[in-house]
Every structure is written in structure tokens, then in C-alpha cells.
Specification:
It comes from Anaerobacillus isosaccharinicus. This is MFS transporter. One of its GO terms (molecular function) is transmembrane transporter activity. The chain is mainly α. The protein has a single domain, classed as Growth Hormone, Chain: A (Up-down Bundle). The protein contains 15 helices and no strands. Helix 3 runs antiparallel to helix 4, helix 10 packs parallel to helix 12 and helix 10 packs antiparallel against helix 15. The chain is globular.
């Protein structure tokens, strides 16, 4: 069961990562302005926020499996829509619908995984889930860039759409629902229940960590492909470069280093990861040499590896089974908000790639200082 959930997580993130190196150039090819490109890149995540919050309520009410299947089918349909857009406005609409669908399936998958995790090895379990995201981060950008170059951008969407459709069928056949009517009767849907999850100090740190991680990824998705294109390199190289951080993260997750997630406080791991990401973005903004760019992505991979399992484990640690869907819905809403804010800021400012990357580094450093201040002053215990 757990291993099948890991496979689902790989697939759930594949559509997002496969578009990282192609969506900004695709929007540019349709005639989108700098600001509109930022909106198009960020629209998926903006809509994703709504999907996450809705999914959080539905997962705890109707069960994990139903929402997961609905999300997979809906995303499969939306991916086909990309192949038929001819204007930036149409692309913006498809991104909106795609984001809503994606917002349903990811919280459901992680709520399932959280239900099957053990307290003593929860950090390691979420490290493996991070490895799944890392696998998507490796396969996705390289796949999107290479298929675009060889077969055309439409085939990226056709292939992944078919993959989501097949996965939905397998989920219906293989995955057993761990939800019961008794649990539904215990679950209350009110504003106070949601505010409770927004007020818990450990969860606030998890939300900040998720927001900061995806803010930088949103900036990378926008700025790095444009930086590589301006240097005369092919879009395929952009995909390979963005995939490299996933390799580093996976090694960190699957090697004995994954034991650190159950030995070191989660918030400390988040701060260390944020500092690595800050350094990565500074290097990306200052240098053009390919070798140095790969070093920067190596640092980004370490930062990703430190942050992702730690913040997801925090969510599981501080939510019970009857509110876990809602907790992950809020968590991934902050994930999505990060991408929206990151891509929108650099798009609205119309900054060159190097300046945009440096802005991302500055924001990440500020957020790391906020988390550190919260640990010392506010505290993180219940």
C-alpha cells in the first residue's frame, strides 16, 4: 500500500515538473507580455490553492480515495487542453483549470501516506516521499524539454494525460479506502477548526517552509529557462539543469542521511535548507559558467532535501487523522501561494533573470530569519 502511494506521489508531481522548462517559453511564443508570463506561470498554483482548501474539506468528509481518483481524472482532461491553446489568455484559463484539479489529488495522496506512517520513523517516511518528488523533479523537466524538442510541446501533454488516466484506473482497483462513516461523524467543518490549524506554532513554521520552497521554485521556473535561452543554450539543457537538483535530493533521501530527519528537530532542518536555497540562488544570479550553475543546483537540491520532509512531517505530527486532510489542504495551499508570489513578483517587476534570482535569494533569507525568530521568541511547542 505504502509503495503504491509513493508511485502515486511521483506521478502527481510529474505534470508540474515537466512544465517547468517549457511553460514560460511557451507563453512567450504565444505573444504573452512579461507580466502575463508571470501570471501564466503562477496561475496553476493560484488555482491550486483553491483546490487544496476544497480538497482538505472533502478528504476528511468523503474519504481519501474518492478525491484522489477525481483529481487524477480531472487533471488528465485538463492536460489535453494545453494542446489546443492558441492565445496567452486561453493558456491562462487552462492553467487555472489544471491547478484546481492538481489541488485535489496531492493532499489526498499525502493524507493517505500520513495515515500509514509510524511516529518513530515519520521523518524517514516523509523523506521517501520527498524522494518521490525528487524523482519527478528529475524526470519531469528533462522529459518536458526533450519531448518538446523532438516531438513538439503537444506530446508532452498527451503522454502525461494518458499516464494520469491509467493511474486513476489503478487507484480505483488497487487502493483500499481507510475512511469510514464513523470518522466522518467525528469531523467538524467550521471556521474555528481551520483557524486552529492556522494558529498552531509548528504548523505555521511548516507553512512558511512550504511557502518559501515553492516561492523559489516559481522564480526558478520563470527565470532560469529565460537565463539559459539568453545564453544561447537549448531548452533541453534548461530541463537537464533543473532536473539536477532532484538527483541530489533523492540521494539525500535514500542514503543513510535520511536518518537525520528523525534525529534533528524539524524546524532546524527547515532553516538549514532555507540557507542552502539562499546560497544557490545567489550563485545562479552571479555566474554564467555551466559548471558553476550545476553547483548552484546541487546546493538547491540539498536545501530541498532538508525542507520538504521536515515540513510535511510537521503537518503529520501536529494533526490527527480526522483533520489531516484539512491540514494538508492548508499546507499545499501555502505551497501553491509560494509559486504564485514568486512568479508574480519577478513578472511584475520585469526583472532580468539574474536580478530575479537574486530577489528570490533575498526573500528566502528573510523568511529563514523569521522562522529562526519564531523558534526563539514564539516557540514551537503545542
Amino acid at each position: 500500500m505504502v509503495y503504491f502511494l509513493y508511485i502515486i506521489i511521483v506521478i502527481a508531481f510529474l505534470d508540474t515538473f515537466s512544465q517547468l522548462p517549457i511553460i514560460a517559453p511557451f507563453a512567450q511564443s504565444l505573444g504573452a507580455t512579461s507580466l502575463l508570463i508571470g501570471l501564466i506561470v503562477g496561475m496553476y498554483s493560484l488555482a491550486n490553492m483553491g483546490g487544496n482548501i476544497i480538497a482538505g474539506q472533502w478528504i476528511d468528509k468523503f474519504g481519501r480515495k474518492k478525491i484522489l481518483v477525481i483529481g487524477l481524472f480531472f487533471v488528465s482532461i485538463c492536460l489535453i487542453g494545453y494542446a489546443f491553446v492558441t492565445t496567452p489568455q486561453q493558456l491562462l484559463l487552462v492553467r487555472f483549470l489544471h491547478g484546481i484539479g492538481g489541488g485535489l489529488l496531492v493532499p489526498a495522496a499525502f493524507a493517505f501516506l500520513g495515515d500509514h506512517s509510524r511516529t518513530s520513523t515519520r521523518g524517514k517516511t516523509m523523506a521517501f516521499s520527498g524522494a518521490c518528488v525528487g524523482i519527478s523533479a528529475i524526470i519531469g523537466p528533462a522529459f518536458g524539454a526533450i519531448i518538446t524538442r523532438t516531438l513538439g510541446i503537444d506530446w508532452v501533454f498527451y503522454i502525461i494525460s494518458a499516464l494520469f488516466l491509467v493511474t486513476a484506473v489503478f487507484v480505483m482497483i488497487i487502493l483500499n479506502e481507510n475512511f469510514s462513516t464513523k470518522q466522518t461523524e467525528k469531523t467538524k467543518f467550521d471556521t474555528e477548526a481551520t483557524l486552529k490549524l492556522l494558529r498552531l506554532p509548528p504548523l505555521i513554521n511548516a507553512y512558511i517552509g512550504a511557502f518559501s520552497l515553492m516561492l523559489t521554485l516559481g522564480i526558478l521556473a520563470y527565470m532560469l529557462p529565460l537565463k539559459i535561452a539568453a545564453s544561447g543554450q537549448s531548452i533541453a539543457f534548461s530541463g537537464i539543469l533543473m532536473s539536477s537538483f532532484g538527483i541530489v535530493a533523492i540521494l539525500f533521501f535514500v542514503l543513510p542521511t535520511n536518518q537525520i530527519f528523525d534525529q534533528v528537530k524539524r524546524e532546524k532542518m527547515v532553516i538549514v535548507g532555507m540557507l542552502f536555497v539562499t546560497g544557490s540562488l545567489v550563485i545562479l544570479s552571479l555566474f554564467e559558467l555551466i559548471f558553476i550553475l550545476f553547483i548552484a543546483m546541487f546546493f538547491y537540491g540539498i536545501g530541498f532535501a532538508c525542507i520538504f520532509p521536515s515540513v510535511t512531517a510537521l503537518v503529520i505530527d501536529h494533526s490527527n487523522k480526522h483533520e489531516r486532510g484539512r491540514a494538508f489542504g492548508l499546507f499545499y495551499a501555502f505551497f501553491s501561494l509560494g509559486v504564485v508570489v514568486g512568479s508574480f513578483i519577478v513578472g511584475a517587476l520585469n526583472t532580468p533573470p539574474n536580478q530575479g534570482l537574486f530577489i528570490g535569494a533575498f526573500i528566502m533569507l528573510c523568511l529563514a530569519l523569521i522562522v529562526q525568530w519564531r523558534i526563539k521568541v514564539v516557540g514551537t511547542s503545542l
